[in-house]
Amino acid sequence: MSFTWLVPEPISADPPHSTVNPLLTQSWLDLAFLHWAVDPAEVAPLLPPGTVPDTFDGVTYVGLVAFRMHRVGWFALPGVPYLGTFPETNVRLYSVDAQGRRGVVFRSLDASRLIPVAVARALFRLPYLWSGMTVRHGEDTVTYTSTRRWPGPRGAYSRITVRPGEQVEEPTPLEDFLTARWGMHNTFFGRQMYLPNTHPRWPLHRADLLECDQDLIRAAGLTAPVGEPVSVLYSPGVAVRFGRPARPGGIPTP
């Protein structure tokens, strides 16, 4: 199949679309964003068909994002307090499709609730994995831990500690590129789909990385990063609404 590739949509700190009738609602809280530069040639084979690596000045990135998922809900129903609330740590890549839509591609999503993991794997074909996890606040730090249980590789782990600093008044172009993502690319039942999302503009803080011991990136099929991340950010969080998935042509599914 051949594609006529469009110029990628502009990077915007505010959502370029609205979500009137959400498919899913949730909040993402206490987020730590860690990013390393990576060769687009390494990333390209790991992306869904119909997408290519999204780049910034010729470079793409792998993100390790740890946070608390809070009250996942379906449609306009209230979010679920227990099963819909749990720590999560994901490994993500950056993608753009033939319609120019920028998004993320998840290589792994470790979460501490088995039932949501099973549902996400079955319904959305997302690489969710069941892990033992904690998010703990210190006096001025946040520590995230994760040890994988199922399906594997069993024992894959992460331990991250950040100290949030000053609020970011004006994000750099790279910080917007890494955080202002308004959709997810994935393959659903053999077809490439795009799941759009909306949320308020990120409240971001630059952060000091005090500890990062992990093998989740290597377990996700990428070369283990060498050296410090090029970007470390923290956010207290946002409320998120997901719309219906769209086919490659941009037409929502029924």
What is the CA-atom radius of gyration, in angstroms? Answer: 17 Å
Could you tell me the number of beta strands?
12
Q: Sketch the major β-sheet.
A: 9 strands, mixed, barrel
Number of helices: 4
- By secondary-structure content and strand pairing, the structural class works out as mainly beta
Helix content: under 10%
Indicate the mean pLDDT.
92
Strand content: over 45%
Jot down its keywords.
254 residues; mainly beta; nine-stranded mixed beta barrel; 4 helices; 12 strands
What does this 3D model show about the protein?
- The protein is mainly beta and 254 residues long.
- 10% of the residues lie in helices and 48% in strands.
- It is built from 4 helices and 12 strands; from the N terminus they run E-H-E-E-E-E-H-E-E-E-H-E-E-E-H-E.
- The protein has helices at residues 40-43, 114-123, 173-179, 216-219, and strands spanning 24-38, 51-53, 60-74, 86-97, 102-111, 128-137, 142-150, 157-167, 183-188, 191-198, 205-214, 231-242.
- The longest helix is centred in the middle third of the chain and has 10 residues, at 114-123.
- The radius of gyration is 17 Å and the shape is globular.
- The two termini are 24 Å apart.
- The mean pLDDT is 92.
Short account of what is shown:
The protein has helices at residues 40-43, 114-123, 173-179, 216-219, and strands at residues 24-38, 51-53, 60-74, 86-97, 102-111, 128-137, 142-150, 157-167, 183-188, 191-198, 205-214, 231-242. It has 254 residues and is mainly beta. A hairpin with a 6-residue loop joins strand 7 (142-150) and strand 8.
